[in-house]
Amino acid sequence: MNRVDRLTAIVMLLQGGQRTARELAQRFEVSRRTVFRDIESLCEMGVPIITTSGPLGGYSLMPDYTLSPLQLTASETFLLRLALSSVSQLADTPFKQERESLLAKLAALMPEQHSDEAEHLLRTIQLDIPTRHYATPFIEQLIASARTGQWLVVVYRSGQRTSQQTLRPIRLYSAGGFWYCQAYSHERQEERTYRVDRFISVSPATAPTATAPAAPATASLPYGHPSLPEVCIRLTAYGVMMMERDPHLGHAIQAMEDEEGLLRFRCPPSEYPWLLRTLLSLGPDAEVLAPTSLKSQLRQAALAIAQRYP
Fold first, then answer.
1. Residue 87: inside a domain
2. Residue 84, in any domain of the structure
3. How far apart are CA 177 and CA 61, in angstroms?
4. pTM of the entire structure?
5. Can you state the percent helix, strand and coil of the chain, rounding each to 5?
């Protein structure tokens, strides 16, 4: 990023509220001295920047000061188009009409030269989204509930059974071509993750009466809680390559010699059935070192599979 673009970006950031020199330096990967020089240059250009000293101080703009809309560069245009095209690859996405209107507005705002450059880059660079076939008729309702804190009564089809639950959605995200909803379950008294295409029905509900369990349940503790048993798994180089793709555990791999790795994390024992499936899929490329209970469950699961092939 050149200096002119950085100065413009600083003004746009300050439009959103006060920022410290440290925040600006980290954001643009420059030194604080460079930020001081940039602020001084903006003041010399007539930008009304207010400097507040002290622990809670920083830089802000005079009230009612706004920057005129700026033309997108070719790279900025490409990034927007790449993000929109990647979202469009998902089998079902929210705000379809808004996405199409945004594309139309971008086309109208972009200089023809930038549009041609962006199209060329889109043919060169692509984010790989797995092809899936499903529908998410409740995704916009879940997004709205996550934003407002609205409780919902849902009927959900898991891999084992269909159940009715009272949920408060927290956030939605996409991984592996699917949409997921992280939500607090009143019946389970814990946060869980739900695949959005498996909701059968969703309807608003009043906030349930708080009925916290008498004692903290191990299953309700968050991942990484120090009171949970630590899972330790030795991975071969191939096992590392496979687990690096996992959106939940990939960050917990510790590098070892010969490109092998050690997967270490803490999770509730109630998650072991899910973990067993992952370990079985890795076969000889994963060895459970701890805890003993997980090793025992994995042995039983492997023997049960072996007995099918006498």
1. yes
2. yes
3. 42
4. 0.61
5. 45, 25, 35
